[in-house]
What does this fold into?
Amino acid sequence: MQKIILSQLDKKTLAEHAEKEKPNESCAILFGKDNLVSEVFLTKNTEESPINFTISNEQLIEGYNVAEEKKLEVTGIFHSHPNSEAYPSNTDKKFMHSNPVVWIIYSGINKNFKAYILESDIIEIPIEEK
Ligand SMILES: [Zn+2]
It folds into this structure.
């Protein structure tokens, strides 16, 4: 069973980022090894939208470069849903196909974190706290 491990500090960083970017969605790239997230790279939502997010190509490249320098992998993509549950939208599902990593979503309503991967369908995987 796949899972993702996130530290309490990383959760706090992501939740604060999400709250700060309200009313818009926030996003970040998660670095680590295997299923363990060891670093969070906060990014800007270039769409500045409450229902969508886009990470610029520049920031994506920067993120991948930082990961490479630190000998880490991109283990996940994070974004927030300020006004809805932490469940992938249809747009998210579409982008999960092109970015097959773990997707972590934070809900601004109930402050929940949920993680998903795409197999034949989208499945929720547990988030373990380090
Ligand atoms: Zn979404």
